[in-house]
């Protein structure tokens, strides 16, 4: 089932539950205002449906504290002219979004220039891609900034799918992403640099996606740049020999 809401200046969904329901493209080009979805739960039992849980067309969006699971695709934002052009996607949980026909927990599509996008403190588990960066091929629609940071990404093979292209299908060189300080663990618990792929066999995202620092463990306490010291070890044990009256001491101390 679909719930379509559009042509309003401001729209807000708070603490709603959607079972086998999705919000299709909502919003209006050139209409200012804010589209807010917070504290909502979206659950779909059959991921074969070709749909996003939420698909918004708006310049100013707040998408926070939501849970999305089971959909073929999670949350899609198509940025359009009008409003402050800020997109905040924070503290959401995305899970079981792994259908090979989609598998994007978040998709960004840029159709207006100057948009600031912050994707922070979200949890992704058992998805195919955490974030897909997409656009309509117009070089005039360059976002002001795209930040993907402080997220926890587990059992998800691809952190970012970079699909920002020019009209001739070549990779754009003006859409850059700051993807520092994420915990990305596609297998096990060891955090590694966020894995970036394109949908072209020849394209490179070198210089476009920046990831110099990442968390190396689930608590997001230490990063690869912390330079943790090797532990020092000393050993001491006490015992005596009743026949010879000898005493042996051995102390064990482990410290960082």
Structural class by sheet pairing and helices = mainly beta
| Element order: H for helix, E for strand | EEEEEEEEEEEEEEEEEEEEEEEEEE
- Residue share in helix: under 10%
CA-atom Rg in angstroms: 24 Å
Main sheet record: 7 strands, parallel
Count the DSSP helices: 0
- Spatial sequence of strands, sheet with the most strands: 2-5-8-11-14-17-20
Regions with pLDDT < 50 over 5+ consecutive residues?
Answer: 229-237, 252-256
Percent of residues in beta strands?
Answer: 35-45%
Give the overall silhouette. Answer: globular
Gap between N and C termini: 57 Å
| Beta strand count | 26
Walkthrough of the structure:
By secondary structure, the chain is mainly β. Helices cover 0% and strands 41% of the residues. The protein contains no helices and 26 strands. It has strands at residues 11-14, 17-19, 23-26, 35-38, 41-43, 52-57, 61-64, 67-69, 73-79, 86-90, 93-97, 104-110, 116-120, 123-127, 129-135, 145-149, 152-154, 158-163, 177-178, 183-185, 196-198, 209-210, 232-234, 239-240, 247-248, 253-255. A seven-stranded parallel sheet has the order 2-5-8-11-14-17-20, with no helix packed on it. It has a seven-stranded parallel sheet with strand order 3-6-9-12-15-18-21, with no helix packed on it. A six-stranded parallel sheet has the order 1-4-7-10-13-16, with no helix packed on it. A hairpin with a 6-residue loop joins strand 24 and strand 25 (247-248). The radius of gyration is 24 Å and the shape is globular. The model is unreliable at 229-237 and 252-256 (pLDDT under 50).
């Amino acid at each position: 089932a679909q719930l379509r809401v559009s042509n309003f200046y401001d729209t807000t969904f708070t603490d709603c539950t959607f079972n086998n329901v999705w919000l299709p493209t909502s919003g209006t080009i050139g209409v200012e205002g804010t589209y807010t979805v917070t504290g909502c739960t979206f659950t779909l039992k059959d991921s074969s449906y070709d749909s996003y849980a939420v698909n918004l067309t708006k310049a100013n969006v707040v998408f926070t504290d939501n849970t999305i699971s089971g959909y073929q695709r999670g949350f899609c934002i198509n940025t359009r002219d009008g409003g402050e052009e800020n997109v905040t996607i924070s503290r959401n949980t995305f899970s079981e979004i792994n259908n090979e026909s989609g598998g994007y927990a978040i998709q960004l599509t840029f159709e207006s220039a100057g948009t600031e996008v912050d994707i922070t403190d979200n949890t992704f588990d058992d998805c195919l891609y955490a974030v897909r960066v997409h656009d309509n091929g117009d070089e005039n629609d360059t976002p002001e900034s795209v930040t993907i940071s402080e997220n926890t990404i587990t059992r998800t093979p691809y952190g970012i799918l970079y699909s920002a292209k020019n009209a001739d299908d070549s990779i754009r060189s003006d859409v850059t992403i700051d993807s520092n300080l994420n915990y990305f663990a596609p297998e096990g618990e060891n955090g590694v640099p966020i894995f970036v792929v394109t949908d072209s066999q020849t394209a490179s995202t070198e210089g476009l996606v920046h990831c110099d620092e990442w968390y190396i463990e689930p608590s997001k306490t230490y990063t690869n740049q912390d330079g943790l010291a090797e532990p020092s070890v000393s050993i001491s044990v006490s015992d005596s020999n009743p026949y010879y009256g000898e005493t042996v001491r051995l102390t064990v101390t482990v410290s960082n």
